[in-house]
Write a structure and sequence with these properties.
eight-stranded mixed β-sheet, alpha/beta, 11 helices, single chain
Length: about 240
């Protein structure tokens, strides 16, 4: 499905039980809807499911100018209002987690789930594709799917992105939202891999200290894609946190 918000045509899918609470899934940088499908499919009988191709990713158009993270938040607010959604749960990985954090600091969210989500200025190599693909080969759920990693990860990383998307990425990694994160009041689940080399595990515990009602679930031996590396465990943890 498509919807136009902030003069940008955005692709999303909606399925599951529309009579139940809504969960919105937000993928990481350079990814798309498919990176959240394994998680979302596990709850389609229990929730109203929405997965978005964030602007500039997947089948969604690029914004017309270099958005700040705040613009992605306001895009999400307008999206939620247009679809008449009340008090959604947000599930975000990496960049999608940063957007979720900033959104939850300003607007009503029932619950928040974060996977390897940055929240302060990042010291990072902006050409991510090689590192991401190398990591992806170690992830069974991705490795089993022929060509999945190359198709769905790193497609719009800094090196290969348009100049506009490069500017957006720079805006994103330079933004520190620690003060905003302190305002979050909804129950928050933080899932992290102790081998995450993109957002270090120390950040998970700092995030826990900033959000009053939060807790960390640490996956030993897992990377930035811990939620997929232990997909079955993640589904079980989410069922416990979100309820069946």
């Amino acid at each position: 499905m498509n919807i136009t918000i902030k003069d940008t045509k955005v692709n999303y899918i909606r399925y599951g039980n529309i009579k139940k609470d809504t969960i919105i899934y937000l993928h990481g940088w350079g990814q798309n809807i498919e990176m959240m499908r394994p998680l979302a499919d596990a709850r389609e009988n229990m929730n109203d499911i929405i997965i978005i191709d964030l602007p500039g990713h997947g089948k969604s158009e690029e914004p017309k100018y270099a958005w700040q993270v705040e613009d992605f938040v306001e895009f999400l607010k307008e999206f939620i209002e247009k679809l008449n959604i009340k008090n959604p749960t947000l599930v975000g990985h990496s960049f999608g987690g940063k957007v979720s954090l900033l959104y939850a600091s300003k607007y009503n969210v029932k619950k928040l789930v974060l996977f390897g989500s940055p929240f302060k200025k990042e010291i990072t190599n902006l050409s991510l594709k090689t590192k991401i693909l190398k990591t992806a080969k170690k992830i069974p759920v991705l490795n089993k799917l022929e060509g999945f990693a190359k198709k769905h990860i790193g497609s719009t990383d800094y090196k290969n992105a348009s100049p506009l998307m490069r500017n957006i990425l720079v805006n994103t990694v330079n933004l520190d939202i620690r003060e905003e994160v302190k305002k979050i009041t909804c129950p928050t689940l933080i899932i992290w891999g102790d081998l995450d080399d993109q957002v270090p595990v120390e950040d998970a515990y700092e995030l826990e200290s900033l959000i009053k009602d939060s807790g960390v679930v640490l996956y030993e031996g897992c990377t930035h894609y811990a939620y997929l590396e232990r997909l079955g465990q993640t589904i079980n943890v989410l069922n416990s946190f979100l309820g069946k």
